[in-house]
Amino acid sequence: MQWLERTIATISPRWAYNRQAWRSGMDALYDGASRNRVNMNWNPESTYDENRMRATRELMRARARDLERNSDIAQAVITAFERNVVGNGMVLQAKIPGQEELNGEIEALWKEFCKAENCDITGTQSMEEIEEMLVRRYVVDGGILIVKVYVSDSDYPFKIQVREVDELNPLATPTGSNRIIDGVEIDQYNRPVAYHFKKYRNNLAIPGESVRVDAKNVIFWWRKTSPRQVREVSMLATAMTRIKDANQFVEAVSIKERVLACLSVFIKKNTPSGSVGRAVNTPTKQLSYDGVTLSPGMIGELNPGDEVQTVIPSGQASNTKEFITTLIRLVASGIGLSYETVSRDLSMVNYSSARQGMLEDRKTFKKMQKSLVQNVLSPIYLEFLDSMFLKGKISARDYLENRRKYAAHVWIPPGYTWIDPLKEVNANKVALESNQDTLARICAERGEDWRDVVEQRMAEIQLIQKMTGGETSGEDNTSSGNDEE
């Protein structure tokens, strides 16, 4: 009841009650906008999201990294993305039309470039390992930065430098008309113009100083969910509270079970009876129980009048499994995965439910694969092509005039296998015969190129026919020879 109704109620309770009833009935058109008793404490601010994110982004990132280090549930979510998005790495195939030999040369150069000493400026990670790290930081931190670097003393002058998002300098100040939000310099259209990284000296950031890098030389892989959003938000933002609850609950249950498994013994001593003075009969030597423990088959001696009492904690374990299962389901569904993928618990599924869960999970993984290819891998590959042409390792005179033609390529992600391959093979056979699917799409789902499959099958069939035909002709010659004899 509002203050005015309370004042009126002192004079006329009926009048105040009617006013409150009408106010409650006309509160809001939607229940979600009502300010009744249920929603009384639900008053979020309607402000610019980026301003509110700036105050919480660093804290959420620190909490997400803490869960990454200390939570097996968070680690299960992260490794699920690593395992299914990257797997053994993305396979590049150059697709320059009519240039099969050049395609092979470029693929060989790319394979050599993917070695740690050629692609990584630090020389410590191969391209596959970098891809895996990118996915991990994308899930935990919400984004990752890749800086394009050129060196002069290498056969592969183009290299990449991976930098974390917390290396952006939030204290950088603009010097022109552009704005700087948490280290990202943007123009009037909110388009990134440059990135301001912290400047270090003796492993310590120098206050007020930063290194400005043009946006064309930086790849910022992050997920944008709001038109005015400039920086990243951790994918674990909505799930971290559930993960923390699960960790604390498991710890509490573990402590409770340890307490229930304990057996304690107390020594109850009787107070000596008798009158005060010389008539009290007390032993001259008392046994001490300090440091005494129980062991199987032990035989001990107590002081006269002492009694042993055991303490066995009562109670039983709570219904832990159902509660943990519910929390993991909430965590997995909020991120876009199934319970089975995160928990690796397949005790409650059959073929149909497991297949449906895998299909939904693959939509999530393919979405991230597409983002990784378009925003990270393809820009790196195009920069690699330019560097190889300038280095003279690609023999193409019209490269600059027909750069789009030479840039044609595809990425083959890691393949997936099914629970019952026979059913899937029969389904693919029917789909091909009825023209409802293509060999290219079926092979792509398995992580293979359909041209390689066709060429390999043709080579195998020709070899089988050649070997079978040789044996047949030999048998025919022998038979004809016997007939002549």
From TrEMBL:
Region labeled Disordered — which residues? 466-485
> Which keywords, in A-to-Z order, does the entry hold?
Coiled coil
Q: Which InterPro entries match?
A: Phage_lambda_portal
Q: Name one GO biological process term.
A: virion assembly
Q: Which residues form a coiled coil?
A: 50-84
Q: Mark out the compositionally biased spans (Polar residues).
A: 475-485
One of the entry's Gene Ontology molecular-function terms is: structural molecule activity
What name appears for this protein in its UniProt entry?
A: Phage portal protein
